[in-house]
Amino acid sequence: MSTTETSVAKHWIDGQWADSDEHRDSVNPATGEVIGSYAMAGPKEANAAIEAARRAFADPAWRADRLLRARVLNRMADRFEERAGDLVELLGRENGKTHDQGRLEVAFAPETLRFNAALALTDTGTNSQVTDGELSMVVRQPVGVAGIIAPWNSPVALGIRSLGPALAAGCPAVMNLPWQTAQTNSLIAELVGETPGLPPGVANTITGGHVSGDVLVRSPDVPTISFTGSTATGKQISAAAAANLKRVGLELGGKTPLILFEDADLEQALPIVVSALIVFSGQFCMTGSRLLVHERIADQVRTGLGARLRAVNVGPASDPASEMGPIIDEPNVERIDTIVEDAISQGATVIVRGGPVTDGPLAAGAFYRPTLLEVHDNSMPIVQDEVFGPVLTMQTFTTEAEAIAMANDSRYGLSASVFSRDVDVPLRVALALESGSVWVNDWARLHDQFEEGGFKGSGVGRMRGFAVMDDFVEFKHIRLRPGTTPAA
Ligand code: NAD
After folding, report:
1. Candidates 45, 111, 285, 323; catalytic one
2. Separation CA 176–CA 167 (nearest Å)
3. Choosing a second label site near 160 at 20 to 30 A (CA), which of 35, 78, 198, 482?
4. Which spans in 83-154 are helix H?
5. What's the half-sphere exposure (Cβ side, CA atoms, 13 Å) at 106?
């Protein structure tokens, strides 16, 4: 615990900064250095934020004025654009992201906010003359206080991905952002909270963890939870939320297969495979972690991909030449390496060993070099479990049906990539994959107007797209029988 700090990253509750009794240190994962301190939320802060949001919902100022909501969301988008450089810098220092990868994350925020500003204005509802002379209509109304829980791997993009639709729908929100990115959270809180026109209590931000998150999940005053995180936590949240029959939107883990067919353009595909593994140091829900390769191009891939992965320039965000930053912390480096060691002892063949960086100038940081293992058994833990690090398995197939079966033999179903120069094969395979997103000759391309989310253990509900509002609104059917007097 720090006691001498002059500036502490704080929470934003009811339109003002709020401190906590407990302060902790923020650490740069590339160097191990303390870069600041932050207030850590517990039940007290979570309950204060819920109470502020509950009061904001009772006042119709926000929920009844969609023009205000759209204006404020657009202003918020401007603010995220104006301070994008500062967010990128903080993500580099605190989250380990290279500046290119930080820019990738930060660019989502204004786009998402603008899309949600538009959604606030395009709610036309439905109506129908079901019986002659009598009308039915459906109106959408905000459900109440939204609890938002986001993980440390992309707090800017993922916090805003849930906050935008909540605010657009008219729901005040409490965002529980992760302690690992407290300094970044504080800038998010400033950009959101100080947006001109935003009423106090409508957007509250606390920095916490599972204790404050659990308060949101269990509170009877929070009727909807928008959670992004691991599948294991998603299941716990779903079970706890059931006690109050609250709705939960869950964006969970993934085990993205990248399928390389025989006719794939490898010059184009292999750099994309490398990006799919190293963006955010493999700590991305959509990290390409299972490479399925047609057996006739397997040798080319082993050699070509192996060379590319060995050449990845691992280093801190402060070095513009870095292509991949550190892992979030040292315990995660050890966790990842144990998984790799176990896989090797279970029969995986090493193509590129990668692993922790233990000497030279990077040794003080939590660095892990990209790793490529070849496996033949789809049931191995390294193939079935999310590693959440830069570790790729490679398997070979001979037929399209075999590739589809291997890709679908997974608890997860978040995303997949298919590489082929054919016209028919990619679409046929995309339709057969049990996956919320499928990219053809590409990876991780997301747009706010198209739904994003998981099949199977990768989630419930959808973020982005028009379906995003469903987590935050009640549908109300109103039946009208106009005056019973017959027309003269
Ligand atoms: P996690 O599930 O351990 O924690 C996520 C957040 O939930 C934490 O920051 C914590 O504050 C909170 N939390 C933890 N336990 C809780 C509980 N019992 N009740 C309430 N809140 C609780 O995940 P993580 O390790 O922080 O993030 C990595 C995971 O997130 C990976 O599995 C990754 O795939 C997934 N993820 C999914 C998406 C997506 O869009 N599908 C995006 C990013 C990350």
Report:
1. 285
2. 15
3. 35
4. 84-90, 99-121
5. 28
Distance of CA 417 to the CA centre of its chain: 18
Whole-number Å distance between alpha carbons of 409 and 50: 41
Q: What is the pLDDT of residues 211-230, one digit of tens each?
A: 999 999 999 999 999 999 99
Of 425, 384, 380, 420, the C-alpha closest to 401 is 425
Taking the CA of residue 454 as reference, the ligand 1 atom at the shortest distance is 41
3-class DSSP assignment, residue 90: helix
Answer yes or no: is the C-beta of 254 below 6 A from any ligand 1 atom.
yes
**If pLDDT is split at 50, 70 and 90, which confidence band does 3 have?**
very low
Nearest CA to 460 among 473, 474, 472, 471?
Answer: 471
* Ligand 1 centre distance from Cα of residue 44 (Å): 22
How far does the centroid of ligand 1 lie from the alpha carbon of residue 310, in Å? 30
Q: Which two tokens stand for residue 134?
A: 């009598």
- DSSP, collapsed to helix, strand or coil, labels residue 307 as helix
* 421 closest CA partner among 297, 327, 303, 289: 297
Mutate to test the pocket of ligand 1, among 228, 238, 284 (most ligand atoms within 8 A of CB): 228
How much of the chain exceeds pLDDT 90, in percent? Answer: 95
Binding site membership of 327 for ligand 1 (Cβ less than 6 Å): no
Residue 456's Cα: distance from chain center in Å?
17
Q: Kindly state the helix (H) or strand (E) to which residue 455 belongs, with its residue range.
A: strand 455-456
How is residue 385 annotated by DSSP?
S
The DSSP code for 191 is H
CB of 412 within 6 A of ligand 1: the answer is: no
How many angstroms separate the alpha carbon of residue 279 from the centre of ligand 1?
Answer: 18
Q: Which of 230, 286, 386 to mutate to test the pocket of ligand 1 (most atoms within 8 A of CB)?
A: 230
Catalytic one of 45, 51, 111, 251? 251
Per-residue pLDDT tens digits for 100-117: 999 999 999 999 999 999
| Strands annotated E in 166-277 | 173-178, 203-208, 224-228, 247-251, 256-260
User: In angstroms, rounded to a whole number, what is the distance separating the alpha carbons of residues 167 and 471?
Assistant: 12
- Does 171 participate in catalysis according to the annotation? no
Confidence class of residue 4 from pLDDT cuts 50, 70 and 90? very low
* CB 80 within 8 Å of CB 306: no
Q: Residue 117 in contact with residue 79, Cβ under 8 Å?
A: no
Degrees to nearest 5, angle at CA 41 with 36 and 44: 145
* Model-wide pTM > 0.90: yes
Closest CA to 289 of 346, 343, 326, 334: 343
